[in-house]
Amino acid sequence: MPLKYAYHPGNVAHSGSPEVADTMNAVARNLGLELTILDGATSCGAGIIRQANERLQLALNARTFAMAESHGLSILTPCAATAGNLKQDLEKLRSNPILMKEINDVLAKTCGLVFSGETEVHHLLHVLVDEIGLDKIEKLAVNKFDFRVAGYYSPYFQMEGACGGDSVHDPDYFEQLIDALGGSPVDWEGRVLSVGAPGILSEESTALRQSAAVISEAKDEGAEIIVSACNLSHSVLDIYQGKASRVTGITTNIPVIHLTELLSFVFGNHNTRFAQLRTRIAVIGD
User: Fold this and answer.
1) Same domain membership, residue 234 and residue 141
2) This prediction's pTM
3) Which of 8, 35, 87, 195 could anchor a disulfide with 211, C-beta 3.0 to 4.6 Å?
4) Residue 242 and residue 247: Cα distance in Å, rounded?
5) Number of neighbouring beta carbons within 10 Å of residue 31
């Protein structure tokens, strides 16, 4: 019996991090996930919209919740920022019936939908461990990911009720997953620190310093590669890596991939790209 979810690809999955969109379908097929695409669903707002107009972000995300509820499904996303922002707004609306009614009035007028609060929000990492199980995932791994891996959670879903059965303050689901896939997980504090996303759009120099510090720690702890559970953070760690080095003088040359890429590679998909990644790791390593 497949696990069924309403799928939200998360921020920048079709722009700054297209590799997430490229690999998620194959991963879902391997895992037996049945994903219903929420056609027309908007960005979660990434906290940016909230700063300017909180009610607008609430209305946009309530629309996404209502779309999922119309299918009778909970939401699955591979993006930590999306999972965290959706969860925050879901709980805010659930805890305030007056606000929920006001937002539902907006939905009724603009798109004819109604949000009841019955849906849930899940990140892929937590579904892997809590719902599918590491034993099954280990059996699906045909290509062992035999590297020293720094799993990057981001701070966005490290909150009560948003990280499955994992610890809010000292998570280890990523490390368990890496171990199950044949890798050697790196123990590092930077795994839950911010890399400045989405502040890269307005406070670039600060974000570059934050991302350089996180990358530097991963390298210092012996990581050969960083794997991110957050689309936005992945974009900053990867796309802006060279610029972060030039601005800070810190060495930041390390491959960065997304969780969906890791899974796709070990499940036997995109083998050419996996071979290219192995070469990058061999060449980039200090």
Assistant:
1) yes
2) 0.94
3) 195
4) 9
5) 19
Please give the sequence-ordered ranges of beta strands (E in DSSP) within the chain, or none if there are none. 3-7, 33-37, 75-77, 121-123, 148-152, 184-185, 225-228, 256-258
**185 and 272: one domain?**
yes
Task: Write out pLDDT tens, residues 24-40.
Answer: 999 999 999 999 999 88
Domain hosting 199: range is 136-284
Query: Across residues 232-261, what is the average pLDDT?
Result: 93
Tokens representing 86? 């959706």
Find residue 36's DSSP bridge partners. Answer: 6
* Cβ-contact 212, 247 below 8 angstroms: yes
Q: Is residue 128 part of a domain?
A: no
Nearest one of 80, 90, 160 to 123, comparing CA atoms: 80
Q: Within 10 A of 138 (CB to CB), how many other CB atoms are there?
A: 15
Mean pLDDT rounded to a whole number for the chain = 92
Q: What is the pLDDT of residue 43?
A: 86
For the residues 240-267, what does the mean pLDDT come to? Answer: 94
Domain boundary, last residue among 123, 150, 176: 123
